[in-house]
Structure formats: structure tokens, C-alpha cells
Design brief:
heterodimer, A: alpha+beta, Beta Polymerase, domain 2, five-stranded mixed sheet, 5 helices, 7 strands, 28% helix, B: alpha/beta, Alpha-Beta Plaits, Fumarate Reductase Iron-sulfur Protein, Chain B, domain 2, FAD/NAD(P)-binding domain, five-stranded parallel sheet, 23 strands
């Protein structure tokens, strides 16, 4: 199976990652393969994996924000029931032009993942159904919250407000009021 | 449609005669697991209201509300928890420095009023308050570092050989590590007599912003190089972190800031003084009180002249504290900056001798005096006039002046305060065998704890519950000191026990020198009689108001002479208050010419 995939991978300019590398003292499991592929070759490669490679099941589909490199990495996890094998396809896309080809024509449920990725990361998938509908964040106004430059605290301070009736005291200020309120010790 | 689909609806009939599954009401309450994180419990008497729980809470679920009376080391505030926001993560329990906050394993509470789910644990009598089970911080799991970063010091074997400064000071890495332990609660601010903003200058160390640190320190203390070494650090006694381990080394962190900045950079960093306002204030005495008043008044634009009897400024900082605790160049660093601001120092000038007090009174718009306590108490036993009996202060002053004290080979120091410790440790450095004789127990000694520890470690012998009886001329040594054993008699609750001589007990120490260091009183002879009559005195202290103004509106006083705390930092605070007072008085009440 490995040879089979590798042969076609050459055609799509996909390269395997760390097959023999030990990561943190642990060897990667035998039935898992990571493949990195250029953005324009990604969907053709995935299509080949599904239709000819036997990887018929899209297990999950997500993204990682590598803000330092100014990219999003899109991760497709596919599974082959016949071969009991997983394959992870990694695609890097420009963070400034966060747009990726849709794969909803291969698996209809991919549309839901794409809806989620748009909501959480702001990555668009042109042509994907219901892409701009609310997914988990109903009525969300702010920037996509899974982007690493999203400031959670700033957003919640701007959006939410404390429950009425709450009062707090700063120990140092309160102790001054109680123990040495006089002007003579105020500096 | 298959045959299966037609039959399926009828198959449910086979369940018709089975016993139904029904959940009966009321529900059986299942107890939480032993370490379940349920509603909070708080031991109100252990909690000090530091607000660290409020700081750490990621959901802003905690408010600090007044519950107890505020006193030193306890803000009186207690955490109130909003269970609408609490996510039961228990970070508040994990970080609590006093370990007063915990969580019970109770988690079932149904109510239609949402407001009841906001309460102050421990203060509102909940059924789970006495609950033993539930989440507590696990042993060995610490979010706060309880061990102080060790201060590099010269060993006691080395330190007793010379007057080299013992404490070497933190490196940048050590200071930052120590500063990281601070929870920034600010409970120390109230306890510091000068109310220094400790959390902020510690934050400056964390941010590596020494200039900001220096500015914060100077807001409340113009003698930080000295205080960073010899302050009595009341702040450290109330430090929240002390409840779980060592207090922050607040004093040494202050010293760290000062040590990083050259004296000639101060002027660039610190704020400029106000323009001269044409008024003049005389300051009598150049100890911490006088220097502090001079600095803050100068900052307000007053023309300041400091009159001092000694050759150099600094008062007890210079003449009372030995060099191994406070090197003279550090006192100079503090004083030279004050001089740089334009404060005029007139040394070797005794008021009442070289210049009459009345002359100052008429020349200056106001007078601040902090002349301290300079007259040592005598031992009040027979033979105290014999040669070889000296006072601790005189001896320390001689050493500062560069004279070698004539103490011989063996010394007995009588007293238990810092002067006694300093005199004893100075004697050691002149190769004398040194014994400290004190009437009460070690725990009653007014000296700083580390002073006592260091004196003992350097080799001073501590003889406690010992009352000197009489002195005689010695045979092989210069003196014979007879002393009797004392027993501690309780004086009732809240008072410290009194030492009473055990009848008939008499012991003898032979020594060359007896140094008496049992306290001092004020020397007020510089004040003319009419002024003395005008001022009020109570138990030897000058009576002053909040602004340290005496009964004569033009005269202000501070420091040991007006302050029972009798330490440098209180004197500095007095000087600051007096500077404010003098400013208010001169702005509002004194006629302008």
C-alpha cells in the first residue's frame, strides 16, 4: 500500500513526513502516514486517494494557525477500511489570502467542516454550501476566535458586562481607607 | 418494504408485561467524591484577604468584600464568589497563600433565585461550612514558590574578622526570581510606616525597569540605599507569602534596585523639584527624619538648611550602625542626592551652642527637628563610673570616627536591642570575647531577629534573664560584673512578663569592658526654656499632631523623639508627613512678607 501511494504521490508532488523519525523517543505508528502537498495539488491528490487509493473515509478536517510563518496549515485525516491505514494530508495556505478549494463534492459532510473552519479561522471555501451560515457561534460579531491574534480578554471585556450588583475592593486601597486615611500619610 | 418493517412495530408489545424503569422522587442524593470540587469553604480567621484568589480567577468570579475588621496583615476583606461565573477549576484553592480557601464536596443546591448563588464562603453559614471532605490544595502542589531565593552572604567565620558588608546582594537573575514570588496583594503597604508602594517596585524588578523602580521608591523614601540594608522591614512580617513559607525579601529587593543605578544617574531619572518658592525651613538633625523632611520640602521648592552636630550627615545611620551592616558609601549615596538638590548642610553646628535656637526661630519660616535620642541610660548600679564602663552609642560613634575603641580582651554588653547587638558584634571585630547580658528572654529582645541570630552565629554568648547587680574593680581584668538570675513573672494577659531577681542568686563575670546599651533618652537642652515650656511632652516624647506639628505652630518634630516605633523608616515617614504639614501651614496660615 505504501509503495502504491508513494508512486502516485510523486505525480502530485506530495512528500512524506518523518516516516522513520523518532519524535520524543516514540516511533510513529506503522499504519499512519503524513503527506505534505502544495495547495494547488491538494484536492487532486485527495481525490486520487479517495477514488483510487482506497481512502474512502474523511475522518476529520481541521486547521492550525502558524501565525509566526504567516500560514494556516489545513489537515485532512483520511482512513482506508480495506487497508486499515490512516493518511494525513497537510496543506499550507497563505494566512493573508485564507482561501482553499472545497472538497464537499467528495464527501458531503466536508461542507460542515468547512463551515466550521470559516467560522473559527476565517478560511473561505468557495462554492461550499451553507458556508456563511452560523455554525456554533450564533450571532458572532468579532474576528474568528481561533486565530491566534484574537484577544479573548479584550473581546470579552468589550462584549460582555459584569453582573449588576457586584462590587470589589483592592486590598491595598481598602486598607489605606481603613487604617491610614489621613492626608498626612497620603503621597 | 420488507417483511421486517411490517413486523417491527408489533415487537414492542413483548415489553408490555415487563417492570417499567421509573426514577422515583425525591431523587437519591449521591454524595460527591472525597476530593470533589463543590461549593467553597473559607476559614475566615485564617484568611487574610490578600485577594490572590480574585487575581488568579480566570472567570472574574471572585469579589473581595469587607467582612472582618481591618488590621495589620489582614485587609478584612474576604472573597465572595459568583457561581454564575465560577467554573470550579479550583485555581483559587491551589494558590491561596494561607490555605484558608477550600472546596467542599457538596454540589447539589437548587433554588429559583439566582442571587443566592453569590455568597461569601464562611461568612454566610452554609450547610457545608464544616465539611471535611472536598478539594484542598494537595501537599507538594504549589503554585507559589515558598522558599526565598537565598541571599549570598559572607560566612560568619569571615564576617567577624572585618567590617566588610556581610550581605552581598542579589544578582539580576536572583532578584527577578525573588520578585516573581510576589503576589502583589499590597498588604505590606499599610504596615510599612512610610507606606512604600512595595508591589509596584517589585513589579519594576520583574519588568527589569530599574528607573521606574527608583521613582516609585523615592515617592515615599528618600533614603533607599540605607533602608534597603537596615530597615526593620515590618512589611516582611505581614507578607502574604509568609503564610506558606518565607516572606518576600522586600528589603533586599529594594536594595537591588538602588544597587543597579549610579548616584549620578538619579537626577536624570527622578522627577525635578518645584521652582524655589522663596520660603526657608530649618531642619535640626540630619538623621533619617531630618533628611526625609529636607528632601520632600526641597521637592516642594523650599530653601532648606540642615543643622547637625556631627562632622558628617546621617545621624544614627552613620554613627549608630556599624559598617558591616550599612557601609558609609551607601549613606553617602542617599545624602549626596539630597545635597545635589540644593539642600544646605551645616555640619559641626550645634543649636543652642554655636547658634541659639531663637535665631533660627526668627530667621526661618518653620523648623523641623528630629534630634533623636542621644543620651544613653546609665546602668544605675554601683561602680558604673569605673573606668571600662562605656555606652554602646559612644563606642559605635568612636568606631565610625575611625578611633580604635579601648575595650580590652573581654566585653560584656548589657541590653537586648539593636544597639546592644551592634556593640557586641563590633567588639567581636576588635577581637574581644563578647557576652550579651539581657534581663528578659531571647524572644523578648527588641533587636531584629536576624541581628540576634547573626550575633550568636558570629560567636557572641547570650546570657538571658540576667540582671546586673554591681561592678567592682577586677583583679586580672579591668572589671568584675556581678549579676543575678531573674525569673519571669507574668504581668497579666497581653503584657510582657517582668524579670524579677531571684533572691540570693549572684554570678560573676570578669571582663575588661562593660558596654551599656539599655536605651537612650532625648537631649532637649538645645531648646530654650520658653520653647520647652510651650511644647508638650508625654513620656519623654514630643507631642505632635498627624502632620508632626508641635504645640508651637512653627515647630515640627519627628523621628525617635516623637515616635515610639523608634526606627529609621518611621522617622522617614515622620519627615514626609512633616514636610506636607509645613507646606500646608506655610501656604495657608503663615503671613508672607
Amino acid at each position: 500500500m505504501y509503495e502504491n501511494v508513494m508512486k502516485s504521490a510523486e505525480r502530485f508532488k506530495a512528500r512524506p513526513l518523518g516516516r522513520d523519525q523518532k519524535i520524543g523517543g516514540m516511533k510513529q505508528r506503522e499504519d499512519l502516514l503524513f503527506m505534505k502537498v502544495e495547495q494547488e495539488q491538494a484536492v487532486p491528490f485527495i481525490t486520487w486517494l479517495k477514488e483510487l487509493g482506497g481512502f474512502g473515509h474523511l475522518v476529520l478536517f481541521t486547521a492550525v494557525d502558524f501565525i509566526e510563518q504567516d500560514i494556516f496549515q489545513i489537515t485532512y485525516l483520511l482512513h482506508s477500511y480495506e487497508q486499515h491505514h490512516d493518511i494525513v494530508v497537510l496543506v499550507e495556505i497563505d494566512r493573508q489570502k485564507a482561501e482553499m478549494e472545497s472538497i464537499h463534492h467528495l464527501w458531503p459532510h466536508a461542507a460542515t467542516y468547512q463551515q466550521e473552519l470559516f467560522e473559527m479561522f476565517g478560511i473561505t471555501f468557495p462554492g461550499s454550501p451553507r458556508l456563511y451560515e452560523d455554525f456554533a457561534l450564533e450571532g458572532w460579531q468579532g474576528p474568528p476566535p481561533m486565530r491566534r491574534d484574537f484577544d479573548t480578554k479584550e473581546y470579552s471585556e468589550k462584549t460582555y458586562f459584569p453582573r449588576p450588583g457586584r462590587v470589589t475592593h483592592d486590598p491595598a486601597t481598602y486598607m489605606k481607607e481603613q487604617l491610614y486615611p489621613g492626608e498626612a500619610q497620603t503621597w | 418494504m420488507s417483511l421486517k418493517d411490517i413486523i417491527a412495530p408489533f415487537s414492542v408489545w413483548k415489553r408490555a408485561l415487563e417492570k417499567p424503569y421509573t426514577t422515583r422522587k425525591p431523587l437519591d442524593e449521591r454524595p460527591g467524591a472525597p476530593r470533589y470540587r463543590g461549593f467553597h469553604v473559607n476559614k475566615l480567621d485564617v484568611c487574610i484577604g490578600c485577594g490572590t484568589c480574585e487575581e488568579v480567577c480566570q472567570n472574574e468570579a471572585i469579589d473581595m468584600v469587607p467582612v472582618k475588621e481591618t488590621r495589620h496583615g489582614d485587609s478584612g476583606l474576604r472573597p465572595r464568589i459568583d457561581y454564575g461565573r465560577c467554573c470550579w477549576c479550583a485555581l483559587c484553592v491551589d494558590i491561596c497563600p494561607t490555605a484558608s480557601l477550600g472546596m467542599s464536596n457538596e454540589y447539589v443546591w437548587v433554588d429559583s433565585d439566582p442571587e443566592v448563588f453569590r455568597f461569601t464562603p464562611g461568612a454566610e453559614g452554609k450547610p457545608w461550612d464544616e465539611c471535611e471532605l472536598g478539594y484542598r490544595r494537595a501537599d507538594g502542589y504549589d503554585l507559589l514558590e515558598s522558599k526565598r531565593v537565598e541571599m549570598p552572604m559572607i560566612s560568619f567565620e569571615e564576617s567577624r574578622k572585618s567590617f566588610t558588608e556581610m550581605v552581598l546582594g542579589y544578582s539580576a537573575e536572583q532578584a527577578k526570581r525573588e520578585a516573581d514570588r510576589c503576589v502583589a496583594c499590597g498588604i505590606c503597604i499599610a504596615t510599612c510606616p512610610a507606606h512604600m508602594n512595595v508591589p509596584d517596585y517589585i513589579k519594576a524588578i520583574r519588568d527589569d525597569d530599574m528607573a521606574e523602580g527608583l521613582r516609585i521608591v523615592y515617592e515615599a523614601n528618600p533614603l533607599p540605599a540605607s533602608c534597603g540594608r537596615v530597615c526593620s522591614h515590618a512589611c516582611e512580617n505581614v507578607c502574604a507569602v509568609k503564610h506558606k513559607g518565607d516572606a518576600l525579601s522586600i528589603r533586599w529587593l529594594k536594595r537591588y534596585i538602588i544597587d543597579q543605578i549610579y548616584a549620578h544617574d538619579y537626577q536624570k531619572i527622578l522627577k525635578e523639584k518645584a521652582a524655589d518658592n522663596g520660603r526657608k525651613v530649618a531642619v535640626i538633625g540630619s538623621g533619617p527624619g531630618g533628611l526625609s523632611a529636607a528632601y520632600y520640602l526641597r521637592m516642594l521648592g523650599y530653601g532648606i538648611t540642615v543643622f547637625d552636630a556631627n562632622e558628617k550627615a546621617g545621624g544614627m545611620l552613620r554613627y549608630g550602625i556599624p559598617e558591616y551592616r550599612l557601609p558609609y558609601d551607601q549613606i553617602d549615596k542617599d545624602i549626596e542626592y539630597i545635597r545635589q538638590l540644593g539642600v544646605e548642610f551645616r555640619q559641626n553646628t550645634r543649636i543652642g551652642v554655636e547658634i541659639p535656637f531663637q535665631e533660627l526661630y526668627h530667621t526661618y519660616d518653620a523648623i523641623f527637628f528630629s534630634t533623636g535620642l542621644r543620651l544613653p541610660y546609665g546602668l544605675d548600679i554601683s561602680g558604673e563610673d569605673l573606668p571600662g564602663v562605656i555606652s554602646g552609642l559612644d563606642m559605635l560613634e568612636d568606631v565610625t570616627l575611625g578611633k580604635t575603641p579601648d575595650i580590652g580582651k573581654s566585653v560584656v554588653v548589657v541590653g537586648g536591642g539593636n544597639v546592644a547587638m551592634d556593640a557586641a558584634r563590633t567588639s567581636l571585630r576588635y577581637h574581644a570575647e563578647t557576652t550579651i547580658l539581657y534581663r528578659r528572654r531571647i524572644e523578648d529582645m527588641p533587636a531584629d531577629e536576624e541581628e540576634i541570630h547573626e550575633a550568636q552565629s558570629e560567636g557572641c554568648v547570650l546570657t538571658t534573664q540576667a540582671i546586673p547587680l554591681r561592678l567592682e574593680k577586677g583583679d586580672t581584668t579591668r572589671l568584675k560584673l556581678f549579676w543575678g538570675k531573674a525569673e519571669m513573672v507574668s504581668e497579666g494577659e497581653g503584657k510582657r512578663p517582668k524579670p524579677v531577681l531571684i533572691e540570693g542568686s549572684e554570678e560573676l563575670i570578669e571582663c575588661d569592658t562593660v558596654i551599656s546599651a539599655i536605651g537612650q533618652s532625648a537631649d532637649l537642652t538645645f531648646l530654650p526654656e520658653e520653647i520647652q515650656n510651650k511644647l508638650e511632652f508625654k513620656r519623654g516624647f514630643v507631642v505632635v499632631n498627624d502632620f508632626h506639628q508641635t504645640a508651637d505652630a512653627k515647630i515640627f518634630a519627628g523621628g525617635d523623639i516623637a515616635n515610639p516605633k523608634r526606627d529609621a523608616i518611621s522617622a522617614i515617614a515622620n519627615g514626609h508627613s512633616a514636610a506636607k504639614g509645613i507646606d500646608i501651614f506655610l501656604e495657608n496660615f503663615a503671613p508672607r512678607d
